From TrEMBL:
This is Uncharacterized protein. It comes from Brevundimonas bullata.
């Protein structure tokens, strides 16, 4: 954890790949996913959703989220 109370996460979008990922500082995996979607405009599927993979840069744990761009809700991938 950094002095700002945020962790560093590496986030990338399905369809764009890891080469187009970015480091995001956020308080949680979900906050990192939403922050990435707001900053980098990842590829959108037919349902107006984006699928993002978020990895904790310190521990290496990875989570997947689907963000609905119509209502801004983020859910874990099913």
């Amino acid at each position: 954890m950094t002095g700002t109370g945020h962790n560093r996460f590496f986030v990338y979008a399905e369809g764009a790949g890891r080469a187009h990922g970015h480091v995001i500082e956020a308080s949680s995996f979900e906050a990192a996913a939403v922050g990435y979607a707001e900053l980098y405009f990842p590829p959108v599927d037919a349902g107006n959703d984006v699928r993002l993979f978020v990895a904790d840069m310190e521990g290496g744990r990875e989570h997947c989220f689907v963000i609905d761009l119509e209502d801004g809700q983020a859910e874990t991938c099913g």
